[in-house]
């Protein structure tokens, strides 16, 4: 578990296998695939997809509160006065927590992405 400042709020987030299920149920897409597609964000912030970053954060916050009442994604977003995507630290921390929780080997997401690119050629 880690606390990350998102906009004007401190949010407790945690990535576990449960996070994958929560994400899939809410967004109808696979979190690992989405995470891998965003692996370059740590090297190039022009690749940031704000909504995906927030979806990761929501699913990891829902995981941390599992078993307790937790708002829908839309209601959760409405609690923030602002979100500063110019603050790279927040974006990087969200992606980092997801990677650390779901890919225990350091750099594994980047390695998978590079393998995919090589196989396309």
* Distance, first to last CA: 39 Å
Structural class: mainly alpha
* Poorly predicted runs: none
Largest sheet: 2 strands, antiparallel
Strand order of the largest sheet: 1-2
- The total of helices stands at 6
Proportion of residues in extended strands: 5-15%
* SSE order: EEHHHHHH
Report the helical percentage. 55-70%
- The whole-angstrom Rg is 14 Å
Average per-residue pLDDT, rounded, comes to 87
Give the tally of β-strands: 2
Described by the principal axes of the CA atoms, the overall outline is globular
Could you explain how this protein is built, in words?
The protein is mainly alpha-helical and 121 residues long. It has six helices and two strands. It has helices at residues 17-27, 31-37, 50-64, 73-78, 88-102, 108-120; strands at 2-6, 9-13. Strands 1-2 form a two-stranded antiparallel sheet. A hairpin with a 2-residue loop joins strand 1 (2-6) and strand 2. Helix 1 (17-27) packs across helix 3. The longest helix has 15 residues, at 50-64.
């Amino acid at each position: 578990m880690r606390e990350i400042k998102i906009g004007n709020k401190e949010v407790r987030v945690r990535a576990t296998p449960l996070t994958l299920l929560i994400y899939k149920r809410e967004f109808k897409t696979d979190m690992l695939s989405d995470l891998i597609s965003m692996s370059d964000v740590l090297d190039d912030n022009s690749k940031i997809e704000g909504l995906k970053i927030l979806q990761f954060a929501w699913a990891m916050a829902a995981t941390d509160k599992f078993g307790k009442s937790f708002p829908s994604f839309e209601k959760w977003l409405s609690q923030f006065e602002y979100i500063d995507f110019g603050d790279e630290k927040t974006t990087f921390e969200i992606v980092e927590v997801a990677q650390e929780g779901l890919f225990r080997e350091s750099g594994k997401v980047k390695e998978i992405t590079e393998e995919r690119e090589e196989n396309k050629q």
